[in-house]
Amino acid sequence: MILRKVALFFLVSSCLYSFDPAQEVSSSTSEPKWDFSKTVVTISGLKLHEADIAVASGTGFCIDSSCRFVGTNYHVAMVASPRKIKGERVVQRYLATGPDDEGATVNDGPAVGPMKYTLSRDLAIFELSHPLPKHRGALFGLKDLQIGQEVDIYAYPKEGLNPIRKLTRFHGTFKAETTAGLLAFDYDSADKAIRPGVSGGIVVDSKTQQIVGVLNAIERNGEPIAMAVPIQSLADFVSKVDPSLAQVLFPTVKAISPDSPDLYPKITLARLDALQHRVGEPHEVKVLRTKAQLLADSMRDFIAVQTFAWGRGDHLPSYESAYEVRMVEGYQRFREYPDGRKESGNVPLPPLNTGISTGGEWSLLPMMVGTDMGLKIHQAPDTIVGNQRIKVFQYVADPEDRACEFKTIVDFLFFKISSVATVACYGEVWTDEDINILRMSEHLELLGKWKNYQGVVTYGWFHLKDEAPRLIPLTISNQAEYKKKIYWCRGRFTNYQRFTSRAEMKVAAK
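Above: the chain sequence. Below: its structure as tokens.
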């Protein structure tokens, strides 16, 4: 087994947020244009409530065209916590809010009691082991709704003790946006009122057949009013979970895709003679170095969940796993998520004959750009990416600069042989107009059997209650060529929380 592993440090671990349950929907008259029975699915799971075991029911919907990602409410994900959806195993759960989220409030759900989360981000996404057969995602609409605009609600309500749930459609109109950031809809209750089980259903524009909201609550005073999370909130969430998918589903969302190639070819800078005086760096390069070091330092007190997916070529992942990662004295510590008990300081390796694994590039690259003066940095012309102006900085280093390394491990089952080579490297750093880092790439010029190594890390803003926003890694992807085959490893960082420790000194009385 030959893999790449860079010894690095960063923190990541799991902080599971919580949601609260919503309500349900009913039927309508005119025939819809899109078959939403192929988009909307049931979600269920066992829950323990007041010493009784019951079935928690909710609704979900396909997010992507192949239906490998299923969306629902945060509170549905927390209460039902399904292991499978329509027979496909849930391999990862992503939560958009939680008790420590900015703006979180206590919301009392009738089925599970009070939960603390942000209503306008009452969202969760399940990643499945394989796409759901014969299912597909619908289009999303990000335009502002007009008062009186007609909609249809699709969900799977519970019908008393009957375990069989049917997809129900209920017609309504847009009423207003609530102070909590939800969309309110009047619905026709002449036929049937909305019942429990519909949380996580979809609100669809009757004319365009685009999804405009995710149902999460109903008015409790008996009025026929349903409330939903705006699709813009889902777009923002997907851009953090999978920026490349967000670019496909929501082209107007300002997200840097991990699949975006470098904007410029490798730069060639003239080497200085050993006796020549080193020229001072331009002001913006100095600012970049400062921001890179701040980025590396700011990530040292967080924990999160890091997912890994290993594969080859255009195939689906051959192996997937998830680990809690946290920083301990400047080094990464991995624990298998969610039930692992042992910690390891090594980057996890998959049980594959040949593969490549991500290292700590999300932390290593900011430190390298911030502190390695052997790294030569050049500012390239600004450009526009996803409707956002981007500053681009290129860097390059020769082997003698000792900036980049590549580690190879050969596993002989009973023992391993590893070797580390110092190699030439180059890449790009993308920033916003204030030189906050959004993307970093790395290319290694390898001389052995591995060829054409490249890695990309994307960053985004993390909002923690009562603290200023800070940048954290969102995605990481590496790939390299071995015997004319491309091997890759892709990962995401989710479920962040602050990791703090407090020391106290006591002096014993004599």
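Residues 283-298 form the longest helix (16 residues).
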